[in-house]
Specification:
Elements lengths: L5 E10 L6 E5 L12 E6 L2 E13 L3 E6 L5 H5 L5 E5 L20 E4 L3 E10 L6 E6 L2 E6 L5 E5 L4 E4 L11
Parallel strand pairs: 7-12
Antiparallel strand pairs: 1-2, 1-6, 2-5, 3-4, 3-6, 4-5, 7-8, 8-9, 9-10, 11-12
């Protein structure tokens, strides 16, 4: 499986028992959705390796406790500590309305109610405290915070997003 066809699920943060159980810090608002997984891809030496899950449960509500098949000792578990976990994009629950996954809106046309068409969404910067739309406006970069109050409509059919940003924000970049 190629990493481009997957989404980051979380990271193995610590061992749970001497039987090879591991605790996973999930990158999700809804960890309950991932308790029933049968398998997951674990990144080992920059390759995604499928691991089958014997059992899993939530641990202290935000961590997922997992027992992988063939990981039966502390040494086996130690080898996986710090590894990233991935699932295929097809495993993502479908979102509707104004909710979206960052990867699905790249290439969408971004418009503002007052300004009109701003440009094409080239990427999303989520490494900052506030995630940002990175929009190409005729070769110039326009950054707009991703804020629920700014997003008026996400239209998957026309591949467009309508925003209502504070007056003057877009003009700062032009």
């Amino acid at each position: 499986m190629q990493k481009e066809k997957c989404f980051y699920l979380g990271k193995i943060v610590k061992k749970y028992s001497f039987k090879g159980e591991l605790l996973i810090k999930l990158d999700t608002d809804d960890p309950e959705e991932f308790v029933e997984m049968e398998s997951v891809f674990v990144e080992v030496h920059k390759n995604l390796i499928p691991f089958f899950i014997e059992e899993s449960s939530l641990h202290k509500s935000e961590l997922l406790r997992i027992k992988f098949e063939d990981v039966d000792s502390e040494a086996d578990a130690d080898a996986l500590l710090g590894a990233a976990l991935y699932l295929p994009l097809t495993a993502l629950p479908k979102l509707t309305g104004n909710q979206f996954y960052y990867h699905e809106v790249i290439g969408f046309t971004i418009s503002d109610q007052r300004f009109g068409v701003i440009g094409t969404l080239v990427s999303i910067n989520d490494s900052t405290a506030q995630a940002l739309f990175e929009i190409d406006h005729n070769g110039k970069e326009v950054l707009i915070p991703i804020n629920d109050s700014f997003i008026k409509k996400v239209d998957r059919t026309t591949k467009s997003i309508l925003l209502d940003v504070p007056e003057g924000l877009i003009e700062l970049y032009l």
